[in-house]
Amino acid sequence: MIHKFHPDKNRWDGVEPHIYKENPGVFRKVTKQILFDNENDLPVQFRYFQVEKNGFSSLEHHKHMHAVMIFKGKGHVLLGNQVYAVEEGDFLTIAPWQWHQLRADRGEILGFLCLVNHDRDIPKYPTEEDLAEIRKNPEAAAFLDGTLKD
């Protein structure tokens, strides 16, 4: 099967964009398109996320690992308590239980492809204590506040 990507629409043929999560308080301006989901003997889900300008994915961690490739645009990612600039072509691995969040804060959009196990645990969101620990790094605090300078 082939799904053609249309850059003018930022979507693939036959793949409907969905709202990222059911709890809108933890993210902003993010859609998800599922490109592959647990077929035959490959128990993974391959997804495309699009984060609109000044949007962000949820700050979370969980037992499962992610493999992420930046497909379009530029932004920043928080991994643990470290902040990295990312752009088209960058490949990230997000370790189990590592805090992570992606932000479209360096241009118009940030589009990324993400590979995860089909069967996976539910994300955990940070407590006030977790946030205080992350914020010990001033760059991470600026990232979370949306005031990080490029």
Question: What ranges have pLDDT less than 50 throughout 5 or more consecutive residues?
Answer: none
β content, as a range?
Answer: over 45%
Order of helices and strands: EEEEEEEEEEHH
User: What structural class results from the helix and strand content?
Assistant: mainly beta
Mean pLDDT: 92
Task: Give the helix tally.
Answer: 2
Computed over alpha carbons, the radius of gyration is 15 Å
Number of strands: 10
What is the terminal separation in angstroms?
40 Å
Q: Looking at the structure, what is the overall shape?
A: globular
Walkthrough of the structure:
Helix content is 10%, strand content 47%. The protein contains 2 helices and 10 strands; from the N terminus they run ββββββββββαα. Strands 3, 4, 5, 6, 7, 8, 9 and 10 form an 8-stranded antiparallel sheet that branches. Strands 1-2 form a two-stranded antiparallel ribbon. The model has no long low-confidence stretch (mean pLDDT 92). This is Cupin.
Summarize the structure.
This is Cupin. With 150 residues, the protein is mainly β.
Which descriptors would you attach to this protein?
two-stranded antiparallel ribbon; 10% helix; 150 residues; globular; mainly beta; eight-stranded antiparallel beta sheet
Task: Map the helices and strands.
Elements: E1 5-6, E2 11-12, E3 18-19, E4 28-39, E5 42-56, E6 66-79, E7 82-87, E8 91-94, E9 100-103, E10 109-117, H1 128-134, H2 138-145
Antiparallel strand pairs: 1-2, 3-4, 4-5, 5-10, 6-7, 6-8, 6-9, 6-10
Domain Cupin type-2: 49-114
Pfam family, one: Cupin_2
Protein name: Cupin
